[in-house]
Amino acid sequence: MSVINVTRSSMPDFAEYCEEIRELWDSHWLTNMGVKHKTLEAALQKRLQCEYLTLFTNGHLALENLIEAFGLHGEIITTPFTFASTTHAIVRCGCTPVFCDIDPVSFTLDPKKLEALITDKTVAILPVHVYGNLCDVDAIDAIAKRHDLPVLYDAAHAFGVERDGVSAACFGDAAMFSFHATKVFNTIEGGAVCCRDAQTLQRLCDLKNFGIHGPESTPYVGGNAKMNEFCAAMGLCNLRHLDEELEKRRKVSERYDEQLAGVPGLQINRIPDGVRSNYAYYPVVFDGYRYTRDEVYALLAEHDVIARKYFYPLTNAFECYRGQPGFDPKDTPIAAHVADRVLTLPLYADLPLETVDQICKIILS
Ligand SMILES: *Cc1c(COP(=O)(O)O)cnc(C)c1O
After folding, report:
1. In 3D, which of 314, 285, 309, 313 has the Cα closest to residue 99?
2. Cα-based distances in Å from 34 to 65, 229, 230
3. What's the 198 CA to ligand 1 centre distance in angstroms?
4. Going by DSSP bridges, is the β-strand pair 266-268/275-276 parallel, antiparallel, or unpaired?
5. Of the residues 15, 54, 177, 284, which has the maximum number of CB atoms within 10 A of its CB?
6. For position 2, what pLDDT does the model report?
7. Distance 59 CA to ligand 1 centre (A)
8. Going by CA atoms, what residue is nearest to atom 5 of ligand 1?
9. Helix (H) or strand (E) holding 86
10. Residue 4 CA to ligand 1 centre (angstroms)
11. Is 88 in the pocket of ligand 1 (CB under 6 A)?
12. What is the per-residue pLDDT for 1?
């Protein structure tokens, strides 16, 4: 068996991509909201059921621009059980993250712990649909409405996820998606924000292009976070094959389920009724199993299977934040417990089912 990595980027056929970018050699229009950018935005508006959507050069800058577009200054309640980007975006925008603990089943922000963290400094709630598991959007929405706070979702993992036919893009006041190479749908590097009104959309469009609104009007101190035509073209190609890819991911995921469900000491991810999953990750929590998470990780590595301790460490344990008030994993004990025990197993569309069997055999040995 050659080395099996935790993920492998989806790519179209070389010829299909060449065909997609051919016209760029006629137009010489390489970036700044060209034809590929416009076509991909329209396709994604449809796919994500969101009228107000704009593309970004990556998910991280999409999130920073979103926080800026909402004009937030103060405390933002969020989860430490996420990728570095979520917390860094809040801090880099001059806001203060306030960490809420997670639900032990969905691993998303626990609304039961949310209200106690709201103060007169709170300006927003920024939960994460981690692993593509939808947050308890109804409970979060009810609390946010009571306190008149916007809810911005980090939906980086949730492309294609739906609940009762409603896309993850439709929850909250806005949602950020990542189209990084390692995500379910990729544009090499890329991202998008979905929002609810034309005014917010316009602000986002201006912010990602140096704050420029028109030839003689620059209302914002913006940076540069535009998606280029080559990335948009990659997205157009990958989008054509997405349903096929999701179907293959489902088969891989179910093959794991068949062998790992019900094994004492293993907690696998559950997809609630009515939810259409995107099978983005295959997290397993090793809690009371005969091997610890770190032992399983090492055992797999010996067999050239590279799993990932995703998410470990918690972002509130990062050394860049050490000693700062409010950054303490002890404040989020369930997140800390899961982070010490979770491993995401290899999962991508073309992972052979026999490889899944071999991985399970190693874990169950
Ligand atoms: C990938 C990711 C991001 C950042 O997206 P990029 O496109 O890589 O910049 C943000 N949040 C989460 C949870 C992610 O997994």
Report:
1. 314
2. 21, 7, 10
3. 25
4. unpaired
5. 177
6. 86
7. 5
8. 59
9. helix 84-92
10. 22
11. no
12. 59
Distance 77 CA to ligand 1 centre (A): 18
Written as six digits, the tokens of 255 are 């093959």
Give the Cα-Cα-Cα angle 203, 170, 166 (nearest 5 degrees): 160
- Ligand 1 contact, 335 CB (< 6 A): no
Q: How far apart are CA 347 and CA 302, in angstroms?
A: 19
Q: Is the CB of 191 under 6 A from ligand 1?
A: yes
CB distance 156 to ligand 1 below 6 Å: yes
The answer, yes or no, to whether any atom of ligand 1 lies below 6 A from the CB of 127, is no
State the distance from the centre of ligand 1 to the C-alpha of 320, rounded, in angstroms.
19
Question: Would you write out the chain's pLDDT as a tens digit for each of its 365 residues?
Answer: 589 999 999 999 999 999 999 999 999 999 999 999 999 999 999 999 999 999 999 999 999 999 999 999 999 999 999 999 999 999 999 999 999 999 999 999 999 999 999 999 999 999 999 999 999 999 999 999 999 999 999 999 999 999 999 999 999 999 999 999 999 999 999 999 999 999 999 999 999 999 999 999 999 999 999 999 999 999 999 999 999 999 999 999 999 999 999 999 999 999 999 999 999 999 999 999 999 999 999 999 999 999 999 999 999 999 999 999 999 999 999 999 999 999 999 999 999 999 999 999 999 99
Of 184, 136, 155, the closest CA to residue 49 belongs to 155
pLDDT for residue 215:
95
Residue of minimum CA distance from atom 13 in ligand 1: 83
Largest CA distance in the chain: 68
Among 81, 108, 154, residue to substitute to test ligand 1 (most atoms within 8 Å of Cβ) = 154
Whether 153 lines ligand 1, by a CB cut-off of 6 Å, is no
- Is the beta carbon of 65 within 6 A of some atom in ligand 1? no
Residue 191 CA: nearest ligand 1 atom is: 7
Contacts by 89-93 with C-beta closer than 8 Å and gap 24+? 89/60, 89/63, 89/64, 90/126, 91/321, 92/64, 93/64, 93/67, 93/68
